[in-house]
Structures are given as C-alpha cells and as structure tokens.
Q: What sequence folds into this?
C-alpha cells in the first residue's frame, strides 16, 4: 500500500492486488471526498463503497448498530452532479445493495435499512432539525452519502454505503456524552465487520 502522490490533499492510499487497483480514503465531509470520488470515477472505478458513521434518528437505535441507506436526502452539493433531481433524493445501486445484504448474512449486530439525510455541518444542527428529520422517517444524519450517490449516478458507477451508528441524536445522546465512551467496544466490533464486508464486496 502506498500513499497517493498525485493529489494535494494527502488522505488517499492505493493498494494493488493482481491487475486490480484499490483506493482507500479516510475523510470527513464532502469537500475532500469529492476530489477523490471524482478522480477515481473519471479514471474508470468499477465500484464505489462509502463506509462511515452516522448520527441515529430512530428511538431505540443503539451506538454500534448498522444502517444501510436505501435512499438519501441531499444538500445542494449533490445537485452539482444531478441538477435535474428536484427532490434531491439519491439512491444506491440495486444489485450492489443485494450483494451487501447477502454479505451481512447473519449477524448479532442490529441492521437498519431506510432513508438518511446528508448534513455536513454536524455542530450546527438544532434540536428542531433532529426532531424534523426523525419525524420524516430518517434513520440517521451523515455527511457524505448524498453527494457520493449523486456522483455515482453521474459517472454510472455502482455505489452503496454501510454506516455504523455513533450516537442517537433523537435520544439526546452525542459523541460528547458518557454513553458514547461506554459503547466504544461495540462500535469497534461493528467497524471491523463494516470493513470486512467492504473488502469482500470489492474482491468479488
């Protein structure tokens, strides 16, 4: 594995196995992610997978649970790739989604499926925002998925996302709270599963 040297942002790593090349990029939000996803897609990426965390919006949801976004309400960034998408609803690839479900198989970790919403300004959201998102049926709020899926649609590349719940906002839990620290071990186990599934899907 080597660090990508042809970019100026410095977050990406490249791994070659046989005749295949894989990029792994750890970022928060879309500003840096959009650079990598655009370049990778323009160079001919075959599959794009978004792994990360999400703030829960469902009562009873626990830190360390998994969410599979089946659609994402986007922000204005996503519209840059999909300008005719008036409802700003962005979706993953159906076939890849089916493979994701199969890869998850039987697990003791709770898996939720449904809609999430993208909001990049994680500390500016209000209690009313959280309440409105939850009331609208959103499972969680994350920072990247809408643009990620919009770019995939633009470049015609299959894409999915698998996210772990960091905290439950609708139950007034946050990453600053004591509950977050107490659930660290569960989140670590979930992240291991999350990455294993991502690797399995990429090498199929």
A:
């Amino acid at each position: 594995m080597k660090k990508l040297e042809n970019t100026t942002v410095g977050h990406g790593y490249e791994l070659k196995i046989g005749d295949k090349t894989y990029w792994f990029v750890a970022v928060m939000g879309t500003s840096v992610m959009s650079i990598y996803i655009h370049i990778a897609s323009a160079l001919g990426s075959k599959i794009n997978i978004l792994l990360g965390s999400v703030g829960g919006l469902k009562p009873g949801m626990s830190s360390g649970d998994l969410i599979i976004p089946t659609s994402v309400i986007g922000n204005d960034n996503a519209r840059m790739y999909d300008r005719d998408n008036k409802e700003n609803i962005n979706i993953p690839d159906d076939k890849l989604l089916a493979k994701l479900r199969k890869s998850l198989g039987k697990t003791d970790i709770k898996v939720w499926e449904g809609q999430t919403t993208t909001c990049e300004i994680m500390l500016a959201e209000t209690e009313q925002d959280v309440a409105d998102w939850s009331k609208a049926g959103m499972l969680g709020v994350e920072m990247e998925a809408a643009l990620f899926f919009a770019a995939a649609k633009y470049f015609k590349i299959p894409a999915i996302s698998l996210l772990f719940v960091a905290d439950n906002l609708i139950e007034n839990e946050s990453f600053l709270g004591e509950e977050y620290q107490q659930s660290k071990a569960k989140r670590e186990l979930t992240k291991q599963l999350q990455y294993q599934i991502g690797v399995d899907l990429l090498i199929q």
